[in-house]
Fold this protein.
Amino acid sequence: MSTLTRNRDIEHWDAEDVAAWEAGGKNIARRNLIWSVFAEHVGFSVWSIWSVMVLFMPTDVFHIDAAGKFFLGAVPTLVGGVLRIPYTVATAKFGGRNWTIFSALALLVPTALTLYFINQPGTSFTTFLIVGAFAGLGGGNFASSMANINVFYPQRLKGWALGLNAGGGNIGVPVIQLIGLAVIAALGNAYGNASVVCLVYLVFIVIAATGAALFMDNVRNQKADYSYMWTALKVPQSWAIAFLYIGTFGSFIGYGFAFGQVLQVSFLAGGDKPAQAALHAAQIAFIGPLLGSLARPYGGKWADRFGGARVTLAGFSVMMVAAIVVAGASTAADRNGHVPTGAVMTALVAGFIALFVVSGIGNGAVTKIIPSVFAAKAQGLELNSAEKAAWSQNTSGALIGFVGAIGALGGVAINLVLRSSYASTKSATTAFWVFTAFYVLCAAVCWAVFLRRPRGESSVVTEAEELVIAAESGKPVSHTDSADAPVRA
């Protein structure tokens, strides 16, 4: 399977070689997965650092209202999403180990900037937006990490491996929120205490870079070629996957940035003083991202068993209900002068947490659809089996970064819609009715593209698309069945 030199370069890697996998390949893959997860985990934490910093930024001191804080959360989400496209090919071009070291050390910049400016309450809002933009560096790490791990694992294990990698990264959101909670509980929410959070992450960044240097490998038979991304984007299902990822990952990261702020506003409306509201929000805010992160690997695992599209469709159905619960709770608070009762707060938190958990499951399921689609499409190419596997691997790896970038834009949209909702009505009600309608649309797209069966000769679904539908319905891809379904890729 591999030729491993002292400088951690693997000249050839074939994860589908079962004998080599059992003879030690799986141990190499596991070692790279562990440190990929940790480095991506730290990246997610830095990406979402401003979801914690805003809890240390009282409006009367920093002069930034709730709408402004939602906008501040949208900026790193946007930058991180855009960076995912170039990060997608970085591991193939520079090596997974090399790029993980570099991308980890790059996180020192936004963390150090945050450490300095969180102690400067007179800083302009524009400057805070620029500093927040640098935190977007952490968002790019997802794409490079996922593309790298996609190479190391065979098709039969990709759902679980990619789900574990992404879930371990996603958990960086609740971990930094837990650290923020610990600081607020122990020291209070005075803005100077936020420095402790930043200092902890400066240490974590160094550990991530050191671990990558010591234990990760570069796989040299990858191709750093944007043409694979353009090839992937010519496949109609790729755009459907990207759209679905807006609904799953966009929800996860968007709510991850916004949940604490929504809670803080609600507690303030309920009569808490600013310090109490920050503490109460921090005590709850981490729960949703934590459970959503833990759920993601199971989304991949269930997708391996039942098909990514089936799990995704079920997820959007539940997300509709959860969004309606949150919208209903917010409506009840509006009728009470924006003051939430105990029952309303319980429904609001329960609905939010359900959105996190199910979006986490959906993340793992949608990610699994990607290699399934290209494994199916590859069977119609006039290539030998090794070339088909390479085409599928490189194309699906390229698409992972693009889909991750588009999905992150969903997080931007969530913060902007919430900002608009609070600015115009002082509540989240309008925003969550919008989100509910979007989840209905996502469910319809998932069914129409990946689960609908063609009927009659008038159907526009091609034989190659039927093969993808079969793969995503949980039916194994048949090489013989696909022989008459050429793909012009």
